[in-house]
Amino acid sequence: MHDAILAVGTRKGLFLARSADGGPFEVEPVHFSTIGVPSVAIDTRGPAPRLLAGIEYGHFGPSVMRSDDLGATWQEADKPPIAFPEHTGATLERVWQLLPSPSEPDVVWAGVEPGALFRSEDRGATFSLVEGLWNHPHRAQWHPGGGGLCLHTVLPHPTDPKTVGIAVSTGGFYRSTDGGTSWEAANQGIRAPFLPEGSQYPEFGQCVHKVAMHPARPERLFLQHHFGVYRSDDFGGSWTSIGDSLPSDFGFPVVVHPERPDTIYVFPLQADMDRTPVDHRCRVFRSDDAGGSWQELSTGLPEDPVHSSVLRDAMCATPAGIFFGTRDGEVYGSRDDGETWSLVARHLPDVLSVRAALL
After folding, report:
1. Which domains does the chain show, CATH number per domain?
2. Tens of pLDDT along 237-250?
3. Burial of 342 (0-12, 13-18, 19+ CB in 10 A)
4. Could you tell me the pLDDT band of residue 147, with boundaries at 50, 70 and 90?
């Protein structure tokens, strides 16, 4: 058995939980109390795990903190780790995504608001703007979604460092094959029903909520849209709807099983502004055939009516298990692929981000 760590970013602090030899998770005292933590990452590539936390200082703005001793101590770069160059005229509003590169040992990607991508070459200590995406002609026409103009997904290719995909709300999905120098919109087949008839399949402007990929099959992507769940078999070249048999194809997260590239998980919500679980029942849905069919998973989840949602980064699927956190501060985990669930934590603040790893 292995020890595991769970990192839960909330509206008021970061909570770490540890599990020894497959035992229950024990939640530690809060880090960064009263400070929002919209993004977390657990980097296990080096000699010691590094924790990264995108935090919101409030009046002092966003930043990135790092720990090389599993949260015992935290460091911050001498100057702001992520900052827009003066010539952009932009100000960092939030760090939405932190993701260690699977193909470059010291590289960490950061997706931020307003709609930009940053790259670190020192394991997340400092970052520089990816100018190629910032200068893309579409960017001036991107409009903020309900959560802001957020670049919330970064998908670096597992073996080719030149290939990377990103998603921004509400710009859509974009991909680069030259390390970020140039980018193309890749949204063919994704319907935007809020647009007039005859123009509902635009080149860009789709309200993408999250995109997921398995490293064993990087050409296949899964996408949760504001109005649908989609699959691409050519790294975004074209997309096919796979959400028709779900009780609702509206939701925020989509994650891929760590060992089975065709197994994915979503958390459907009612598709109106209510944004609560369908029928107010807490249920995860799993597909084992890349979206061909779906199975409801609810054993161990609350049976009483539920009125809270799961945000785009508040679900993860890792060798340590499948985990998700809710907006009313409950965290659930499964170690049997979602067949059964157990409560990991409750009475936390609003859960924004969840990540887990084996140590």
Report:
1. 4-358 (2.130.10.10)
2. 999 999 999 999 99
3. middle
4. confident
